[in-house]
Amino acid sequence: MSAAATAVGTEKAMVGQPAPDFDMASTKNIEKLNENVKLADYRGKWVVLLFYPLDFTFVCPTELTAFSDRYADFEAIGAEIIGASTDSAFSHRAWINTPRDKGGVEGLKYPLAADSTKTVSRDYGVLIEGKGIALRGLFVIDPEGVLRYKVVHDLNIGRSVEETLRVIQALQTGGLCQAEWKPGQETLKV
User: Fold this and answer.
1) All domains of the chain, ordered by start, with CATH?
2) Residue 8 pLDDT level (bands cut at 50, 70, 90)
3) How far is CA 50 from the centre of its chain?
4) How sure is the predictor about 10, in pLDDT bands with cuts at 50, 70 and 90?
5) Antiparallel, parallel or unpaired: β 112-114 and 79-85
6) Mapping DSSP to helix (H, G, I), strand (E, B) and coil, where does residue 17 land?
7) Catalytic residue among 37, 60, 81, 82
8) Phi, psi angles (nearest 5°) of residue 113
């Protein structure tokens, strides 16, 4: 994968606006693959939507398993995680059934969504049109369905679970959180 891949197209995912809706095939029911993930089903919860390029690659399993290993920490703050790529739900299932020491994501605690039409990746501004895959995009959607945070970056660098947890907790304070703010610290008084 090229380190200089870029997304093109019209991005609909704007911070402070309702998050673009989605309804994608997923691994929620790993056996039957008949249960989609829909944004509407997550109302009342914080959502971390993680776009990644491809199943069975190198950086992706390190990210997805790191988020899975900290899943209880996300649940504790009322957040759910959804992984998404342009791969099929069948590919996702095969990857989830592959042991971690063989490059798989066995034991993943959250669903992987299949954006096979590439519509959702395009709406969130992460689709690399010429390749049909997504950049690494992380989106935090609040319980009312408003996009509150987004980070999109190149293919070769994994994301930070710790920073994602910190951002959600900062947003949950409703206050002004200075640089390097940590949960439990005071927010800024104006």
Assistant:
1) 23-173 (3.40.30.10)
2) low
3) 1
4) low
5) parallel
6) coil
7) 60
8) -105, 145
The pTM of this model reads: 0.92
Long-range own/partner contacts, residues 146-152 (CB < 8 A, 24 or more apart): 146/16, 146/17, 146/18, 146/19, 147/13, 147/14, 147/15, 147/16, 147/17, 147/18, 147/19, 148/15, 148/16, 149/15, 150/13, 150/15, 150/124, 152/7, 152/125, 152/126
Helix (H, G, I), strand (E, B) or coil at 48: strand
Residues facing 49 on adjacent strands: 82, 139
- Which residues neighbour 101 within 8 Å (Cβ) at sequence distance 6 or greater? none
Q: ∠ CA(123), CA(129), CA(134), 5° rounding?
A: 65
- Between these two residues, 50 and 6, which has the higher pLDDT value? 50
Verify whether residue 177 is a known catalytic residue.
no
Cβ proximity of 15 and 150 under 8 Å = yes
CA distance 129 to 6: 9
Query: Which pair of tokens denotes residue 178?
Result: 């200075």
Q: How far apart are CA 137 and CA 160, in angstroms?
A: 12
Query: Residue 60 has which token pair?
Result: 């992706």
Distance separating alpha carbons of residues 21 and 9, to the nearest angstrom: 17
For the stretch 123-137, pLDDT in tens is 999 999 999 999 999
Which residue from 90, 124, 148, 140 is spatially nearest to 22, judged by alpha carbons? 124
Q: Which two tokens stand for residue 5?
A: 């891949």
Compute the radius of gyration of the chain from its Cα atoms: 16
